[in-house]
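Let's inspect one such protein example.
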Amino acid sequence: MEDIEDADLTSLLSNWSIMPEPDTATKIIKRVRAMILKLLPVQVDLELISDPTSAIISPAVIKAFAQAGGDFTNAMPFCLLAARASFIRDARLFPPDYDENLCRAMAAEVLARRIVQALPAERLASVMSTRFRYREVDGDSSPPTSALETAIDQNALIFLSSTEAQHVVDSLWDGSWVQANNENDDIDYVEYDKHRFHTFSEHLNPSRLGVPRYQNMFRQVTWIIFLGLYSQAVASPLYKLEANHSFDGWEWAMYIIALSNMLEELVKLFKTIGLASNLYQAIGFWTIVNIMTDSLLTSAFVLRVIGIATSSDEATARYRLLSFQTLSLAAPLLWIKVITVFEGIKVVGTMQVIVSRMIRESLVFFILLGIMAVGFIQSMLALDAADGEVQDFWLIFNMLIQALLGSPDFDSPRTKFGPPFGMIIYYAWSFMALIILLNILIALFNTAYSDIYEDATNQYLAAYSFKTISMIRAPDSFVYPAPFNILEFFFIAPWEFVLSRKAYTKLNVWVMSFVFCVPIAAIALFEAHLAPSQRFKDFFPENNPEVDGDSAVENPEVEDESDGHKISTVSFAELTSVFPDTTLGSQAAIVAEISKLSNQLNAIQKELGLKSRETGKREQAQEDHENGDGK
């Protein structure tokens, strides 16, 4: 019976659907919410929902939700994920119903994944790339978002870890599929038909620089060069101690690449904010790190320019010193960003997720610490002011920080802050900070690490999906990787408002073909000769499972059958007929078995009923015949 339902679901999803308007999409989302509320009126165990053999998310339930969109089946995964976001929001707003709404959110995500799994292969790209709009709470139309993008915005691990979602992400990462930017911020994932190209020259295409895999390689090389330039720049005072009124070569190169990285991050951030449904989804931990790094580099550059513009050698030397001191503060942030550059490696990517989660969890600690620190600082200042004299504020601040780091200074509060009350306050701070708050921080770190470590694979796949889509989400038909984006920003982009679209496209192709001739040639060489080679495929194998129903696999034949020996003396269907149905849980298997027995009983009863009626007819006919003879 389940096979029939799966076949019906695949047949249902194989039909092309219509693009819904925002009001229509909103109605579908509300209908899906109502269905999930009917499905889960009470809290259930989350494992009962996410289990592949779940009796709750059964094939019949999946089919019912697939039919809920009517003629808009393409929109169902997106609408289910939008419903998931609304349940998550309800869980935050209504704490008494938190667990119930969390169950409903997971059910919506699991249903979206199951529907995508049942999609025909030719429908997958369309369903995952089509951007939909719906009415938000305030009545405005939401930014256009696809099912894959909204899953990434919500960090929907169950959906993103599916084979279908990762097939889309992998295809976009290696350039098998490319994103076609249409009007009104709509996009399509289309296949890059590289198989028709056979020669090196036919693979020369400047647009291949926009492929995430090649962007990432270019970024890695650029970042290694930038770190080398930065290391030389911060060490330059060792060679030039006197005040100079100009940048040296290392500084020029470092600040040019820093400017290009800053422009790339700002442009991508503004475009992503315009497409994201809220600001929190566009700004994450690494965005904050980028802002801090860019702020330090900009401050160092401004101080250096002020020093160069100053006529006094003494002032120049002072500003130069401040500039290099500020520049030195950026080193930890620059090196920690190496994690984001090489996060494509699973170990590094998982570590990045763990670090981000730990720092996000530590916000609770710093909020408690800040509130408590204000009270203790005020208490110490009040004790200090009681005798009519006020000590330095930074002395108090330094005392509290030393205690927090495990090296308390007990001499200052004993002699300078109204003994013995200053010591009492300082003891209380040391106890609260070292014993209570630090243990809370350790517990938060342990929780974050254990949560991510237990689900490390899914966390990595979600981070990998975010990295891939973030490289292509902001629409850009011509990708100029840093530091060459400065060339685009100042010399190419202004021509967009002057030239026609065709002429502007031709200008970009010419410029990119000249500037990036070496990377384009390397990409063409890789795609024309190295990627199709068997040795490359052996090093980087693809996930290519056996196709169901292939008779050559299921019932193979011996090529030389002269001796009469065979492999398939017993057919594949007969061999597997004794296998249990692992797609069904224990409860569902019992229900299916009962249903099967019920059908058999009904058939037996029907057959017995027919036989009894035939017997009755024969007896009645015989009786009528006997009565006729008697008369």
